[in-house]
């Protein structure tokens, strides 16, 4: 079967086997829907309008990635810092010492949910009614603890600086610049109806739809596969009118690890983004769950390939559907191989290329495009790629040397050694002419 047939089969099987009113899924590449499939009807009844790629579903906690983008826009404008305590921006709460970064990464220690009634099934209320419910259950920064409440607090930070509601900031700062015309805070036709399937009969129960007020930033938005495809590429690459690629790279660095006993690390939260570590490859995005709806967005950072799933059921989406969709991605959406071309600009760095030694340990320095360099051990050791920051100066971008400065030290205009976080790299092992000389002696040579 071809891609469309395989995809339709997977979606149809998931919809029937899980007794979901409808399921819509898509495979994406570089922000575009390559293939999509739907099964079922918008309200789960026979004869009702069928779901399709333009059907709007509630996306639940994927909304948190939009909230995080709004906060980071304020950061990039210099209005706030990720390290700022909440008290600086929203004074008078019981959790004023937690930082904005801890709220974004779910490491604030803030409680997961509000006081009863169940906020996801009841109408929302203003922030001043949320404030008395703000309570820490863990010391700030001590562990990952998912908090819906934390994103209600972050929405208030945005609202106080912008002077408009969270909904309005999402619309004007994110949706309009990205051309996401089918994403909204309330459902817009054609949209799916929220349903819960009866656990013991082929019956469906309606789920309420409300605006959740101060908690809206945790799960309010509705969207389609085409709009989420656009959003997935933004999360991977940024957009000049919204957030830079560097800011998005910062947001997807793992901070709050999902540390499950007896299991290897596989996922984490960055600044508002879920990050999955799959065989050394990074996938980013978020899941979503609200009464009547489930959703998932995942995109491979390196390739730009991804998967989207949305359904209008409260619980029970197939656990095998996402892995099966990724298998289709791997089989049918190969990443184009870009041709190699010579880069004459690297001539300027050629004098640095080749072997260097940290003490007796051999390293190799390679020049890269745009003035970058790679310093890698020959065998075991610490290496990194470095981006240029000035004449004869670079900063590490990964591993042990992430954020550390590498400087070329010259004598008579010629590179003599590399200074990296106090370590000296010389052209020969324990160069006898280094500031801490070594070298081969007759006694031991």
TrEMBL record:
GO terms for molecular function: hydrolase activity. Pfam families: Beta-lactamase (PF00144), DUF7586 (PF24491). Signal peptide: none annotated. Keywords: Hydrolase. Residues 8-316 form the Beta-lactamase-related domain. Residues 1-15 have a biased composition (Polar residues). Residues 1-21 are annotated as: Disordered. Residues 346-427 form the DUF7586 domain. This is Serine hydrolase. It comes from Auraticoccus cholistanensis. The lineage of its organism: Bacteria, Bacillati, Actinomycetota, Actinomycetes, Propionibacteriales.
């Amino acid at each position: 079967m071809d891609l469309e047939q395989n995809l339709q089969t997977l979606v149809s099987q998931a919809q029937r086997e899980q007794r979901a009113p409808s399921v819509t899924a898509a495979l994406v590449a570089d922000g575009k829907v390559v293939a999509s499939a739907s099964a079922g009807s918008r309200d789960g009844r026979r004869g009702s309008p069928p779901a399709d790629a333009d059907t709007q579903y509630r996306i639940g906690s994927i909304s948190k990635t939009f909230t995080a983008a709004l906060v980071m826009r304020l950061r990039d404008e210099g209005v706030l810092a990720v390290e700022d305590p909440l008290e600086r921006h929203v004074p008078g709460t019981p959790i004023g010492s937690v930082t904005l970064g801890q709220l974004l990464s779910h490491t604030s220690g803030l409680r997961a949910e509000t006081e009863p009634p169940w906020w996801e099934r009841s109408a929302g209320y203003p922030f001043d009614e949320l404030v008395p419910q703000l309570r820490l259950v863990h010391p700030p920064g001590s562990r990952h603890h998912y908090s819906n409440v934390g994103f209600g607090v972050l929405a208030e930070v945005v609202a106080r600086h912008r002077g408009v509601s969270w909904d309005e900031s999402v619309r004007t700062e994110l949706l309009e610049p990205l051309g996401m015309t089918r994403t909204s805070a309330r459902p817009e036709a054609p949209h799916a109806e929220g349903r819960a399937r009866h656990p013991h009969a082929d019956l469906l129960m309606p789920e309420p739809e409300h605006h959740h007020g101060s908690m809206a930033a945790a799960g309010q938005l509705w969207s389609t596969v085409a709009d989420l495809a656009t959003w997935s590429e933004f999360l991977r690459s940024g957009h000049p009118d919204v957030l830079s690629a560097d800011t998005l790279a910062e947001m997807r660095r793992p901070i709050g690890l999902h540390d499950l006993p007896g299991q290897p690390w596989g996922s984490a939260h960055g600044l508002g983004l879920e990050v999955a570590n799959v065989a050394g490859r990074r996938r980013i995005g978020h899941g979503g769950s609200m009464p009547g709806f489930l959703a998932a967005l995942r995109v491979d950072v390196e390739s730009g390939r991804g998967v989207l799933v949305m359904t209008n059921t409260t619980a029970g989406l197939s656990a095998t559907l996402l892995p099966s969709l990724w298998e289709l991605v791997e089989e049918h959406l190969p990443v184009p191989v870009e041709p190699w071309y010579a880069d004459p600009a690297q001539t300027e760095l050629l004098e640095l290329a080749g072997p260097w030694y940290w003490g007796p340990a051999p390293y190799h320095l390679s020049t890269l495009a745009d003035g970058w360099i790679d310093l890698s051990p020959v065998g075991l050791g610490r290496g990194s790629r470095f981006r240029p920051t000035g004449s004869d100066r670079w900063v590490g971008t990964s591993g042990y040397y992430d954020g550390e400065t590498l400087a070329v030290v010259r004598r008579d205009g010629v590179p003599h050694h590399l200074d990296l976080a106090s370590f000296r790299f010389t052209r020969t092992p324990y160069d006898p002419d280094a500031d801490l000389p070594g070298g081969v002696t007759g006694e031991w040579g």
